[in-house]
């Protein structure tokens, strides 16, 4: 008998599930995610699931972790301070593919060096400039990204730069060629920058999770879910955290398939921070061929084709400031619900809310609170940010008492981006407490916060809502509408035939919206989502029946939907892919581009065989290192040729080798 422990660390909750022999859920539990020390939430969920099942810790055969933290960090713009070493490119290339935006003001060095398309050195690496940059900018950098022109053809300069950086700073280094074998240097650089930004966060999560499992007596190996739903070892995830973006959502798709047996369905997973929508087609989740897109960044990471939107139970509620009608919108930033923060600091929160309710005027920051996150890395903070962080201190404080000037608001935004400060305010979770749909936290605090929010004035001069309950219904209706739009966009984007307009426009088109409402006039208009929708997430039963009605679709809410991510974490397979290229720099010469550098052959078949052997060895070795058993290797070849004077001429070949197997478990 194999007992498999799955853990999912989300923005609000950490879930744990125990599965027997991959066939039966025998226990599941939730615990609040504790951002200042993630191990507390992990330990709480795991202890609860062990107690519920009566299973001894040493009987657990394997543990697997999925997480939305990397996804949430990119959606919310958080992470550590990074530096980019950009080898062989022009300064103008920093503006391509959102690279300068990904840097967010962090330092970058455009450095001489790099290689040609054929893999030969284009210019010597400027070591002197690199060392000077490291002495000047290296302090406070939590991770370096190195991207060289045509590094996938020859990674020598990336590797040499990484060696120098590690010797001089000791900080972790991400080389772009290690994340993707494809061309497109700026896009690889974006991926490397994001990986470097996430390294500290994911390393802390995995390390603390492993420590906590060990403290609880669980000695089983730990796996981590990748963005394509496959498993890798904890050590591999620490080196390549970018591959864990969409980890939680990918695990939810695997979990949805396991729970429902669905062959064709839209899967929508609502968490505290995001809503993730993907399509199961013919029993398998589709992989995005263009690379995962999260938080506005298109990466080169293979992941489930998924639309991730900053919409969840803890999304920030905004009042519509334009127009006369008023109303609210949600997201994309996550806030700590007022009902939740009131359970942690009841005296401070209720005293502040009561004072604001008795005030004669509506304050700009009424119902909002702020607190520092203990243990955050403060290196590289500006003077204003450091002063504001010290003013916030360790207690929960009303936001209006902390912000003294408009300039403070910009400083606060930077502290939130760095993950050093958390904001609390009105969210859909608070609205659900007001309406009695949730009873987890402090309903009285939620009522007070929504009462304050309802006092705000729309463009017409009227109050936004009469009372807390009317505002709560308005917020839940908006959540239904934005979720329905997200599902419509996903369905339209996945249509095989395609349409002439972008999915975002079509989902909001008046004819489609009228069709969903069953318009009857001179025209009879009908529209619906024509596949089942599987609703996942702890709050799915509260919100998703109305979404199914809005889309005129069958909504499936499976048992254990609230822990689908944790289930998917332990029922997946280990899968490692390696990709390489053979080019033809001149007639009769075939060049294999390897990690050790280019190698030439006189025959095409010999070159292809050499590349296949090298990639197979790498993929199989990575799968074994991840703890896979019964490994199977599959090779896909994409050979491009051209006709030249009645002759077929070899142009280029790309080989992809996949080694996969079930995780190795100890059976009791």
Write the layout of secondary structure elements.
Elements: E1 3-9, E2 13-20, E3 24-32, H1 38-53, E4 62-67, H2 69-76, E5 82-87, H3 99-103, E6 108-111, H4 127-137, E7 143-148, H5 156-169, E8 173-175, H6 185-215, E9 222-225, E10 231-233, H7 234-239, H8 247-260, E11 265-270, E12 275-281, E13 284-285, E14 293-294, E15 297-298, E16 306-309, E17 315-319, E18 328-334, E19 336-337, H9 338-344, H10 346-357, E20 369-372, H11 383-392, E21 397-398, H12 399-402, H13 406-417, E22 421-425, H14 428-434, H15 443-454, H16 468-494, H17 503-508, H18 510-516, E23 532-536, H19 540-551, E24 555-556, H20 564-571, E25 574-586, E26 589-594, E27 597-601, H21 604-625, E28 628-644, E29 647-663
Parallel strand pairs: 1-4, 4-9, 5-6, 5-7, 7-8, 11-23, 19-22, 23-24
Antiparallel strand pairs: 1-2, 2-3, 9-10, 11-12, 12-13, 12-16, 14-15, 17-18, 20-21, 20-22, 25-26, 25-29, 26-27, 28-29
